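Pasting as-is:
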Amino acid sequence: MTPEKIELLQEELAGLQLAAGYLQYSMERCQDLIGQEGLPPEQLERLESLTSRFARLADLLIQRIFRLVDEIELTGGGTILDRIYRAEKRGWANAAELIKIRELRNLIAHEYATEKMLEVYRAVAVMSPLLLSAVPKVVSYADNTIQRYRC
């Protein structure tokens, strides 16, 4: 275990909490816009910001934090699914929900058809609370991990 990984985890946790705050803010600003059609550009921009923040938080959580905790605990390796199932065993979130979050993140990253964006916005509105609920559990676990492995 290297002190560099512990330091990196602390930095990533700070970024995770900041990203969660931004997603929560966007959720509050977009609550009344979800499901509406024919919105003006400034409101569409708010929805696009919401989806971007959802995707960013999902990436930070699954791609960076999950992987880093696995490395620190020497359980690294494997696929994204392996990381998701380990996260479920740690009590962070339900694996099926994390898989849906990951799939939605991938859809956001690759969706360019404007006719599907209403569905994407609705899905983000449904999945954001699940994603946000994992953050304090991960932070608590990671803080305990940092204390345990601190040199």
